[in-house]
Amino acid sequence: MSVKIKNTTASALDKSSVARYIQLATIFRKRIESGEWTVGSKIPTVAQLVEDCGVASMTIRQALGQLEKEGLIERFRAKGTFVKKQPRRDIWCEVKTDWNGLLISRADAQISVLSQRSDVVLQQEKFETGKVAASYTHLTRLHVREDEPFLIADVYIDQRLCEQLSESDYMSKTAMRLVFDLPNITIVDAHQTLTVDSADLDTATYLDIELAAPVVKVQRIAIDDKGDLVLIANGVYRGDMVRIDMQLLK
């Protein structure tokens, strides 16, 4: 049985481009979260995990090092490794899927503008719906909660609208609300697309996560009654802290 488990785990790890130790850290984190590894209990040794997972001991140590960095486990010389606490599950970034949710900022989140550029031109062929504006203001914004970054986003706003927006708007409103609140603008179409990916170097740096760690990419667009793309927002969320709720019946 142990050989079958080992081969299955190793095979599953090989199917992803994400680094093996990051995948293993996710597996081990889930064991703590599910209660398979209970708080205060001693987890299997490195040698046992090598046997179970079919990977090198260095990979196991890297994965455990990630959990230790997160404060989930403690390692003691000659005693072993023990579960210290459960992963936090107060959801850093709940991705909304309804219109009202996309307009509401988290009350306990801070938004900082890392960069701002004007006269940015976007290519029409990149968008299946809506007509691109002549130019956009481009904001790079970082969303943080309790000193933990959870979202980095590139926001493009039709430059003709930006004279109606203030710096405080940029640091307090969701991307959708930036255009929804403007007078004489009617949003007739808005949607978002979610994809799962892995963190590149810039994303890993901004979100303080490992290179190639899982992330959720979200593109949100808004189109006005003239058919113009007045907003394009490309966000990247930490994959380990994302929850998506969709109401099917009401």
Folded structure, characterized:
28% of the residues lie in helices and 33% in strands. It contains eight helices and eleven strands. The protein has helices at 2-14, 20-34, 46-53, 57-69, 99-102, 167-170, 175-180, 201-207, and strands at 73-76, 80-83, 93-95, 109-120, 131-132, 136-145, 148-158, 187-198, 214-224, 228-238, 242-244. The strands form three sheets. Strands 4, 5, 6, 7, 8, 9 and 10 form a seven-stranded mixed beta sheet that branches. The radius of gyration is 22 Å and the shape is elongated. The protein starts with a helix and ends in a 6-residue tail after the last strand.
Notable characteristics:
Chorismate lyase, alpha+beta, 250 residues, two-stranded antiparallel ribbon, Arc Repressor Mutant, subunit A, 8 helices, 7-stranded mixed sheet
CATH homologous superfamily grouping of the largest domain:
Chorismate lyase-like
Helix content: 25-40%
CATH fold category name of the largest domain:
Chorismate lyase
- Report strand %: 25-35%
Alpha-carbon Rg, integer? 22 Å
Structural class: alpha+beta
CATH architecture field of the largest domain: 3-Layer(aba) Sandwich
How far do the termini sit from each other?
46 Å
Strands, count: 11
Largest sheet: 7 strands, mixed
Order of SSEs: HHHHEEEHEEEEHHEHEEE
Shape: elongated
Overall pLDDT level = 86
Keywords: DNA-binding, Transcription, Transcription regulation
Pfam family, one: UTRA
Protein name: GntR family transcriptional regulator
GO biological process, one term: negative regulation of DNA-templated transcription
